Amino acid sequence: MCQREKMWHKLPCARSELELLFTLCGGQCFRWKKTGNDEWTGVFAHRVWKLSQNSEYILYEFFQGYERESSKRETDTSKRNKSGIRSKGGIMNKTLGDADRNRNDNNHVGLGEEVRKGSTEEELLRKYFQLDVSLADHYEEWSKKDPYFKKSAEKFTGVRILAQDPVENLFSFICSSNNNIARISSMVEKLCVLYGNKIANVDGVAYYDFPPVSALTDPSVEKTLRDAGFGYRAKFINQSACKIIQMGGTRWLEHLQSLPYVEAKTELMKLSGIGAKVADCICLMSLGHLEAIPVDTHIYQVAVQRYLPHLKGRKTITDKIYNEIGDHFRSLYGPLAGWAHTLLFSKEYWTEFCI
């Protein structure tokens, strides 16, 4: 047994049910980095996490700082608090005060509620990876319906949809417009460093929470982000933050989780910088609308080559084509079509870029 397996916490989970590489680094979330041999470090639920796995377990440790700055922060990084204590075996020996724990009550939804209720880290991981969904059962069902899915799942198994914080997910995908994963990750990190609250230093690296919506509403935000290389996305981020606050803040996002999928998508598209594909990403990855199908060039090519050959040769993905592709996959795979779609996307992405 390696040293990591002796020291880290263990969460029972077969590798066939969760493949960290495909799930964490496939364009769903932009806070995870490979930091070692089969090891990833990232941020969610106000914690820094290190994850690894073997055939039977997810191995994990987590870190929390015990001093935080207020939500109205100075953007001069030289003035930041450098505190942050690495926990022994993942358990912090100092805790946040009640006032600090509740600081984000009106700024974050998603995993925030579980954090406030004092869920264990294992429960947070289970929710984040949605481990209540059995991939084996669904893969069997989808494979019977679709020979191409069956073939794809033989190599690209364990691809899960993350249950992300809607605020982080929304602004991350505003950054995704005409962009690649590396640059999106860089922009998301800049948002956290500029406007988020520090969590901890881990292995010499400072990690920050994603900022609350209110931190992105100041008129100075657009110029700051433009200077940081965000381009036209800077305006979209500032405008969307202001619009979300006007519509009720995170209560509005919570409301979108309760709406039917099409209505939630329509509401999201009222925000600056959010079109159909970005709205579908947000619906699928943080609002719980698991029938959402984001159609990008990868999925378009799969649809043309394998399912809808009459679309071949179309120069642009019109609204009509976009909806036809989504409706086809929803009809084929059912209410969790977004999960099946994500495996097909992963096959195209990893085949093209990495494998």
Automatic annotation (TrEMBL):
<dbReference type="InterPro" id="IPR012904">
    <property type="entry name" value="OGG_N"/>
</dbReference>
<keyword id="KW-0378">Hydrolase</keyword>
<feature type="compositionally biased region" description="Basic and acidic residues">
    <location>
        <begin position="97"/>
        <end position="111"/>
    </location>
</feature>
<feature type="domain" description="HhH-GPD">
    <location>
        <begin position="175"/>
        <end position="342"/>
    </location>
</feature>
<keyword id="KW-0456">Lyase</keyword>
<dbReference type="Pfam" id="PF00730">
    <property type="entry name" value="HhH-GPD"/>
</dbReference>
<protein>
    <recommendedName>
        <fullName>DNA-(apurinic or apyrimidinic site) lyase</fullName>
        <ecNumber>4.2.99.18</ecNumber>
    </recommendedName>
</protein>
<keyword id="KW-0511">Multifunctional enzyme</keyword>
<dbReference type="InterPro" id="IPR011257">
    <property type="entry name" value="DNA_glycosylase"/>
</dbReference>
<dbReference type="InterPro" id="IPR003265">
    <property type="entry name" value="HhH-GPD_domain"/>
</dbReference>
<keyword id="KW-0234">DNA repair</keyword>
<keyword id="KW-0326">Glycosidase</keyword>
<comment type="similarity">
    <text>Belongs to the type-1 OGG1 family.</text>
</comment>
<dbReference type="Pfam" id="PF07934">
    <property type="entry name" value="OGG_N"/>
</dbReference>
<dbReference type="InterPro" id="IPR052054">
    <property type="entry name" value="Oxidative_DNA_repair_enzyme"/>
</dbReference>
<keyword id="KW-0227">DNA damage</keyword>
<feature type="region of interest" description="Disordered">
    <location>
        <begin position="71"/>
        <end position="111"/>
    </location>
</feature>
<dbReference type="InterPro" id="IPR023170">
    <property type="entry name" value="HhH_base_excis_C"/>
</dbReference>
